[in-house]
Design a protein that fits this description.
The protein has 144 residues and is of the alpha+beta class. It is built from six helices and three strands. Helix 2 crosses helix 5 and helix 3 crosses helix 4.
Length: 144
């Protein structure tokens, strides 16, 4: 059996390829699908919140958001009472792209979990959450 880290990285790469192949057909680039998914559920968020939730560096999120704004997927604006932060929302076109992205994520999950029973899927998700928490809380990982 291959080492855990290798299997996890291979699974991540395969899932990313599965999703990004479809996303590229919609004109989306790396990082945009998960931002669309997040904004679709959050409604509105500032750049820092998006970066934290999507596990993307704030500067990188800024450049992704600029491309998304140029493509008409999002709009950024200041909220009353908060002059420091720009808040991001989906445009109508962005909402349509988020719906297409949701279909891509669903397809990726269905493909990845084919032949795996519901109980095993639930266990796998719980274990991956624990793996993520362990890594996130490790002293070597902390950068905040």
């Amino acid at each position: 059996m291959q080492p855990f880290h290798h299997l996890l990285m291979k699974a991540h790469t395969a899932m990313r390829k599965c999703i990004m192949t479809g996303a590229a057909a919609y004109g989306l680039t790396a990082g945009q699908p998960k931002i669309l998914e997040f904004l679709s559920s959050a409604g509105i968020a500032d750049q820092r919140t998006i970066a934290r939730h999507c596990e993307i560096e704030p500067a990188t999120v800024g450049s992704i958001l600029t491309r998304m704004e140029e493509s008409g997927l999002i709009e950024r604006r200041r909220e009353e009472g908060n002059r420091r932060s720009l808040f991001v929302t989906l445009t109508e076109r962005g909402s349509e792209a988020a719906a297409k992205t949701a279909e891509l994520f669903k397809f990726g999950e269905e493909t990845a979990l084919a032949g795996i029973g519901e109980e095993e899927q639930n266990l796998l998700c719980r274990l991956l959450e624990r793996v993520y928490d362990n890594l996130r809380n490790a002293e070597e990982y902390r950068d905040e």
